[in-house]
Amino acid sequence: MADPKGFMTTPRQEWPRRPVEERVRDWDEVYVPGALLPIISKQADRCMDCGVPFCHQACPLGNLIPEWNDLVAREDWRAASDRLHATNNFPEYTGRLCPAPCEAGCVLAINQPAVTIKNVECAIADRAWEEGFTPPRPPERLSGKTVAVIGSGPAGLAAAQQLTRAGHTVAVYERDDRIGGLMRYGIPAFKMEKRHLERRIEQMRAEGTRFRTSTVVGRDVSAADLRTRYDAVVIATGATAWRELSVPGRELRGIHQAMEYLPLANRVSEGDLEVSPLSAAGKHVVIVGGGDTGADCLGTTVREGAASVSQLDIYAQPGAERDEDVEPWPTYPKIYRLSAAHEEARDLRTAPAADADARLFAASTLRFDGDEAGHVRSLHLVEVDARRRPLPGTGRTLPADLVLLALGFSGPDQEDGIIEQLGLELEPRGTIARDAGFATNVPGVFAAGDAARGQSLIVWAIAEGRAVAAAVDRRLTGSTRLPAPISAYDRPMVV
Ligand SMILES: Cc1cc2nc3c(=O)[nH]c(=O)nc-3n(C[C@H](O)[C@H](O)[C@H](O)COP(=O)(O)OP(=O)(O)OC[C@H]3O[C@@H](n4cnc5c(N)ncnc54)[C@H](O)[C@@H]3O)c2cc1C
Ligand code: SF4
């Protein structure tokens, strides 16, 4: 803490976003380029170095937040980068995409706005790349052991990087044509530009990690075969089995799952397609689902030029402040948050009626109606109470030429046959069963990330990747010096 009064003299200031009118015309990140560095040292100096840092506890990676806040306040960027990379393989991803449970747990947040921890993390990561503080770190010697990692999302990539650096020969198998998992074809570029992925992949290649893209394990290569060819296998295939909406009219054309829609839009921003076959241009769009995936659809439809967009959330509108009785500090509270996409929809008044907010809360879909050609044209909804019972007289119809279902994911996609080929046991909810040390019921086969944890966050996926790497290293060599920030049974800090 360079300035012990920093938190009293400096107000919280976040990385400013570009004007809405400007940013919705492109796919670039929403932030003003270069506007973070000039403000961030003063912001880091708001950290009180409080002695018992709950922020550190709230971060699944155990990021050493007060330490790097102090180093950034003193402008020692190299040391800050070393401390940050000691616990996080990919801070430029979490610095842009993490919902920052650390900030909810910041001691300052008890009665003041929290330190902008996520922004500090992002500034350190970006500066580290600019200054060359993150060169490839290939192992000094090879162990002679081999590991197959299935899936190249944040969990698979973190596991692969840790194991490669520990000296094992690692091959990452990925069914898509590019590496990155949901960060590649789910999350839109306006939240994180794909160049951040390319840079890390290049670093990992230089360290010795091998990548096998466009290879569906279970179909193109059998999972049982991988088990015999490699000394260990890590399954990090994500939770991509989406939830359905079983209401009348679901079969109409024009109703799609979010993860049918978002990858095509991402392919446009990658330059693979000129126009998405599911483009929202000129259409009335309704997004069913109030979470992050729905917000990503919202920002994408706005950029594609939708005629109108609404987003339905089954939950009631949360309050603007934390309810201390229900979700006390330092837990991550449900409060009304305005993401960049929600801000765009509000400012551009995308809602079809007079609603200022594109989100309709406590809204439950009753049915879809279509035209004679079998295409969806409207969605009927009703307001519901906390127990999801319809409230009389609240029925409403929205125009809908394109409906996007963003209702979450139930577990790993089982169609590829991996689970059957290996004889893996599943949890009752469909995720891959494992012990506290990430080992499945099949010796030498481990599971990490959303495939085993269920739908979660990038920060948890990276923590899982680091922890599973430690477990695999121990199995292969009898001991490990790799850090394990979490056990497979750890959960977010909630009431
Ligand atoms: C639209 C969307 C937006 C999100 N936004 C955020 C956000 O802003 N912040 C945040 O923290 N979290 C966000 N999340 C959640 C986050 O992306 C996931 O929790 C995280 O990516 C999970 O990482 P993972 O490595 O376990 O799996 P994934 O990222 O899902 O990666 C799994 C990979 O395995 C591959 N694979 C699957 N089966 C096979 C097979 N048989 N053979 C070969 N490869 C296979 C898949 O193609 C995929 O590339 C979002 C999720 C979605 C859907
Ligand atoms: S990874 Fe997320 S929780 Fe951890 S310090 Fe960064 S923003 Fe906070």
From TrEMBL:
Single GO BP term: glutamate biosynthetic process
Alphabetical UniProt keywords: Amino-acid biosynthesis, Glutamate biosynthesis, Iron, Iron-sulfur, Metal-binding, Oxidoreductase
Matches recorded under Gene3D superfamilies: Alpha-helical ferredoxin, FAD/NAD(P)-binding domain
Domain of life where this protein originates: Bacteria
E.C. number(s) listed in UniProt: 1.4.1.13
Enzyme class, broadest EC rank: oxidoreductase
One Gene Ontology molecular-function label: metal ion binding
Pfam families, alphabetized: Fer4_20, Pyr_redox_2
Protein name per UniProt: Glutamate synthase
Organism taxonomic ancestry: Bacteria, Bacillati, Actinomycetota, Actinomycetes, Kitasatosporales
Gene: gltD
